[in-house]
Fold:
Amino acid sequence: MAQPQSRYVCQQCDAQHRQWMGQCTTCGAWNAVVEEAVPTATPGSGLKKAKKGRTIELEGLKGSTSPPQRFLTGIKELDRVLGGGLVPASTILVAGDPGIGKSTLLLQASARLTEGTTLYISGEEATAQLRMRAQRTGLADQPVRLAAATSINDILTTLEAIPVAEKPRLLIIDSIQTMYVDGLESAPGTVSQVRAAAQGLIALAKRTGIAIIMVGHVTKEGQIAGPRVLEHMVDTVLYFEGERGHQFRILRAVKNRFGPTDEIGVFEMTDAGLSEVANPSAMFMGRGPSDDADGDQGSPVPGAAVFAGIEGTRPVLIEIQALVAPSSLSSPRRAVVGWDSARLAMVIAVLEARCGMVLSGHDVYLSVAGGLRVSEPAADLAVAAALISSLTDSPAPNATLFFGEVGLSGEVRPVNGREARLKEAAKLGFKNAVLPFNPPSGTGRKSGKSGKPVSGIKTIELRVLSELLPLFANAPGTPGQGRVTQMKPRQKMAGD
Structure:
């Protein structure tokens, strides 16, 4: 009897090797090569009995296509991230760190589904544990059907046996790394098993019209465990983010075939589960423009600047905090939370080279309030304002927000969504906005979507970063202040 053959497969890139090795020669990942048994039969191996293919009907681009019919989950923030609700026959992958709240969110979504029923299949928890979580969150009376299974073949057989009138509208698999296909001899969670299990579920969704949500584990680097092809196979990929020390959770769409990407939903972890945050801007700001009980403007703090960002289609105001302190080390520290450290180094270099600020002998600590991760280049101007404020010990002007991209030559570049950012700031009581100069249309430079003024907001347009210094009392004076020369240091602004 012949010995079963083995192969060595990289769990990161799915590359096959003849023998085990510590580092994959294809992707360079360490300790990712795992021995797997060669399956006795694989799909598509019987080529000798293959039939002649049929002719495919070709269509043109011109035509009318109705938008996909959606059904709501009952959670507005989740529906927002999905693009307006769930699409029948779609597959969604939800990933996040362990204990972040993925299972809790999906259990709440299954219980609040507005149309049809939900089948929740867990490969990590028993049904008794799911009932305990439902009781803790007040969802024990909802019509959700539970099951504890790990075999894809058993799941498909069970769903095929359900009558058409009783088929669930939504199927939740928690998680895809615990599922296995009987025809493969490799362990659950390997590349072969994850790919085969996902392919079987996707085929089920397209055949029956059931929307399927799959939970995915993440690696230490924050990437979805298993092959990257899994992200290409599904229709939507959602990441559940959040810092351990914060009670807030961010659900972000990084891929969506039926809606916008980079859309976020904001939740708060409570004793009764995850609750939606109606006003994310108030959450991400440590101090608002009016903090006093009598309505007077609160006193600004040095080292803090409010950034008007765009997350997907939603404008969000975020407080950026910076601390610049003298360093006794030969290599000063640069600590960043919620932002790109390379981007911070670039802003510091521009401040030193173009604005005459000296930060080489200081430790720099930067943090985004609320645990949000900001990747938008428009945050450069707010970061620069926070650094200048902390270094000079001069608070930023009261009730003022900042947004704009900073170039290496010191210019402040326009960004999109100008009007949306200003309208969100006006609703929260901000009076001033420091932003890039918006050139007239037809100049060849990129400008904002709209240059229309917003009622209640006084705009201060900057061409170069050095024009930001006169807004702070102790900042060194610089020549060529351009459009901001009319603003003297410590001149009272709206809201002071």
Notes: Residues 289 and 428 are 8 Å apart (CA to CA).
